Amino acid sequence: MGEPDAVVKSTSPKVPRWARKSTVVLVIAALALAVFGTTTQTWLTVHLDPTQLGAAVATQNGLQVQGSKAATAVSALALVALAGGLAAAIAGRVARWVITVIILLAAAGVVTAAAIVLADPLAAAQGSIAAATGISGSSVQVDVTVFPVLAVIAGSLLGICALAIVPAGRYWKSRTKYDTAAAGVAAPQAGPADEIDSWDRLSRGDDPT
Q1: CA dist., res. 165 & res. 81, Å (int)
Q2: Is the Cβ–Cβ distance between 181 and 108 less than 8 Å?
Q3: What's the chain look like in SS3?
């Protein structure tokens, strides 16, 4: 009877769900798109005299200020974070550190810009007020919607997810020559003893392969 074949067990570590490449990239992309989506909505509603705003604006119950106008940097920062998250999927070990820093800075910028709008909505609306009425520096009532708060929350979660790129990347397969260099060096190579054994087998008429 032949000996039973040895069971070969995989030595590669099991990838946790949170560390899967698809999970990390998709969550970062979703949060970046969520931040960008908030900028397309109304962040501020300015209440002025209808005679100043005109009939077209007065029918909208005030002057509606989108997030892209109240905090112009948020849209661009969201796109930077989105690009960074997608690039992390194909980046090497060193590049993932750089991408992590970029996304963290973008997330911090989003939170800061949205927080400034929440802290002083009148100042954030002055540009839109001047464009609609030709008057700047006026004291008016400004209502804040929920979207700046959502931008702060999404930006904060985006920064937290960015911190997961480096530890999660340890479970990802290497795609660059720099990441696989260490594995190549550690690969076993045939030594002099193996070569001598092969010649002995050939002299006996055996196939060393």
Answers
A1: 13
A2: no
A3: CCCCCCCCCCCCCCCCHHHCHHHHHHHHHHHHHHHHHHHCCEEEEEECCHHHHCHHHHCCCCEEEEHHHHCHHHHHHHHHHHHHHHHHCCCCHHHHHHHHHHHHHHHHHHHHHHHHHHHCHHHHHHHHHHHHHCCCCCCCEEEECCHHHHHHHHHHHHHHHHCCHHHHHCCCCCCCHHHHHHHHHCCCCCCHHHHHHHHHHHHCCCCCC
pLDDT tens, position by position, 153-203: 999 999 999 999 988 888 887 655 555 554 455 445 555 555 556 556 656
The residues that bridge with 144 in the sheet, in sequence order, are: 44
The contacts of residue 92 (CB under 8 Å, 6+ apart) are 174, 175, 176, 178, 179
pTM to 2 decimal places? 0.71
- Output the CA torsion sign for 41, 47, 50, 52: negative
CB 158 within 8 A of CB 103: yes
